[in-house]
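User: Predict the full complex structure for these chains.
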Amino acid sequence: MTWRSALSLLAVASLAGCFPTMRAPTVIAVSDLTPRAAPDSDREPIFAVVTDRFRDDRSSRDVLGRYDLAGKGGFLGTETIVSDRDITGVFEEAVKSGLAHKGVVQGPSPFVLSGSIRQINVGSAPDSQALRAEASVQLTVTNTDSGSRLWQKTYIGSGTGADPKATLALAFQDLAGALDRDDSIRALRPAFLAAGGKLPDASAVPSSLLASEKHRTVKSDVDDVPAFNVTPRKNFYAIVIGIERYRQKLPSADFAAHDAQTVTEYLAKLGYPEENVITLINNHAAKSDLEKYLEKWLPSNATAGSSVFIYYSGHGAPNIASGDAYLVPYDGDPAFIDETGYSLNRMYAALDKLPAKQVIVALDSCFSGAGGRSVLAKGARPLVAKINTAAIPKTVTVLAASSSEQISNTYDENGHGLFTYFLLKGIKTKDVVRQDGSLDLPALFAYVKPQVQIFARRKSNGEQTPQLHGAEQGPAPN
Amino acid sequence: MKILRRLSVVAVVLAAACATMPPVQFEPQTPNLAVASKRNLKLAVVVSDPMPYDVFYSGQACPKTPNRCYKRDMTAELRSGGFPLESALSRVVSETLSQAFSQVVVVRDLPQPGQYDGVVTLGIGRILNQERVVLTGETNDITAEWTMSVLDKQNKEILNTKGVSPMHNYPWSAFNPRPTFVKGISTKLSLILSELSKEWGATLYALDFNKS
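Assistant: Here is the predicted structure of the two-chain assembly.
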């Protein structure tokens, strides 16, 4: 190394400052963003908004946080610390949650709330060994009838700490706190009423609009996610889908979003790398999202040694003529299910092409045609179809919530689908998790099936018999 | 003796490294819009404070060799040392636009529809310092990304645009990195604010605020 190059390196070092050592890349979770408001701070709904997809308007998706002194080349070890591929979804959920505390609910409205992610930074603060993080979002409410922009605010949160993730989480919580403290959006209620919006009190709010709030008041034993003694596996992939609210006027699939969120948390503890788990909830689970991730993302990532887990909680619908079963995406319409639904056959065909060594599909949906949509009992998830088990490839194992003539129930007291609740409880309490993070499916099924049957009879005087089909075969399909 | 001299130089550099980042001071010159007469319009200019910008330093290897690219997010340390971008932007924009419009008010939040003939929301995004090694030493190319949205009297959007400022260059010394860095940012970003104010002013002066 020449004298001049050494000096140059020192100069870079000096510009870099006296920075602390940082740890591994991380991902920001919704829980890091959600305002920690007391339960009694929940307010009566004052008006509704339709939330548009937030835009990621950052100049770069890099969020830097690591300056690796030991790295080859001295100071060339800068590392991205936020690897979340859908940070907009995280912001959206956090903002929705924060606004719900103010009485601003999701629902039919002339008002549209849009968001623009402006900045996420982590940098070292001078004169200390601390990090300082900032996160900001600009929110806008527009009256779609008039086109007028009624309200716009930019919120910035900041935090100081030593660990990048914890520091960034503090910034996000500060951001959520800023949103919580600012009541200016409530001043839009008169404009909402003047624009013809109708939402006089909580009793008038359709349950589907408040569905996402339900789980916040129901705490279940399976929501405390245990730690499993497993080794993280880089080649574990999962797609988790939970659709509770639909763009069309379909009944709410109660707790489906909460199901998906909790399953995601379990997968993290089972050794699935966070960047390998795609969680699609409500409006993030449109048909194009399902196509994109099931037919493009998964084949691009899964390899011969991979394990793949697909979870779906939400509605389904049949093609009456063909009997084919369809998952109903967020933008699905049962009246045009061929065009707007995502068929199980299509999904199985896509999964069959994967080189993965293991593919598991868990479906918490109804498989009943009895009565159709109009006469379904409250809490049922009406997937009106008969499973064509012949279409299930040999490499795929399917865990279904019920048999083809039954409906799937929810477990309201625990805030989950009945099948999902016992699936998670089995994973949590029974010895079904192997050292490598994979599941002993026959053993898990042996626990889930009778539990669901018993509770379904007790709860609704009905029958619900979970099914296990395919590679890790249980009984013959119904 | 030679080793001692080298060590003393290293000590000076390291001392500079751990020194506090001096405050950045912006003094943008108000540009002359050279308009014949003011338009009889009442404008609100929204400049949020704090503004969600970031300041990045990018090493000379970026972006040609990403695997050997040194990048640094300097937002936190510059903000904590004093980085009065919002006030400087507010002042220079207010003074510039006042040459072209009968009334200009800088506000922090979006006003209600009907209060002004037009509402202009300005934002600075990434301020990028791109290192470049030249024969005579190290220099940084500095640019600033910007956004501008314009609403009419009823707060309906009539323009939404963004861009990157002209690039300016400042030298910095390996022997005195922080002061030269801060001096470079102070002078060149001041210049950029002046240039952007002129560009925005010219755009707004020509804009039809009733076109929606």
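Residues 441-460 of chain A form the longest helix (20 residues).
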